[in-house]
Amino acid sequence: MRVQLSATLTILSLTLNTVSSVGLSVLEGSPVTLITTQHDKREDILNIKWFYNQTANVVYYVPTTPNEKVADLFKGRVEFNKTDFSLTLKNPQRSDSGLYTAVVETLNKGAEAATSYELSVLAPVVAPTLTVVSNWSSSDSCNVTLKCTGLNVSLISSCNGTFCSQEGGDRFLSIAFNHTIVSCNHSNPVSWRQTTMELEPLCPSYEADVAPPAGISPCLLKALLLSVGLIVMVTAVITVHISYKLQKTK
């Protein structure tokens, strides 16, 4: 048996070069099923083996026998499907991350790696923290500096009431601004958490009922709105006056 296992591992190390491993990320504690891709006739299959990191035997199964053999290290932790030869990790932990390879031995082809998975078991991300570094406001301006912190990474954001810039962070930590809400987003490939903060209370003196378009100052916007209002009023008065004259003429 030891000679057979050694020979299988030698063949496995040679055939892995021709089988591309599939990257797979799962949430810690969530069951995951690794499916084989072999398409040989069942009667031609001599045995199936699942390996962990190319050396540790997980499951050994001979189709002509009723039960599979599960290695002591994996007993109670995996399930083997004797129909499609898939392997299920029932409660994967971060320590279970690694390379899982299915080796199928047939009458015609011998032992070949049928499929390979590079499994990453990840813990759910923790909710990020969003703290105020500084804030200042007046009737026509607002400036708030925030710090968004996730696991081992943080970023600084400067908000002016209509837009938030970002310095630092990475693809798993970002900040967003929507109306008056600032959100700090922390994620990994299998989970996502968010912390939000109202920006308006941090700028009590800032009058931002109508956010001016980029490049237009609040004072200019107020002047434009006042001008439009006056034009509408004058137009209404003229229209009423003309209508009155026309009716009087009739």
TrEMBL record:
Domain of life of the organism encoding this protein: Eukaryota
Gene name of this polypeptide: LOC116219471
Species: Clupea harengus
Taxonomic lineage of the native organism: Eukaryota, Metazoa, Chordata, Craniata, Vertebrata
Nucleotide-binding found in the keyword field: no
Signal peptide: 1-21
Ig-like domain: residues covered: 28-120
Name of the protein: Uncharacterized protein LOC116219471 isoform X1
Pfam families linked to this entry: V-set
Alphabetical keyword list: Glycoprotein, Membrane, Signal, Transmembrane, Transmembrane helix
Keyword Iron: no
Cellular component GO terms held in the UniProt record: membrane
InterPro entries associated with the record: CD2/SLAM_rcpt, Ig-like_dom, Ig_sub, Ig_V-set
SMART domains membership: IG
Transmembrane segments: 223-244
Compartments, as annotated in UniProt: Membrane
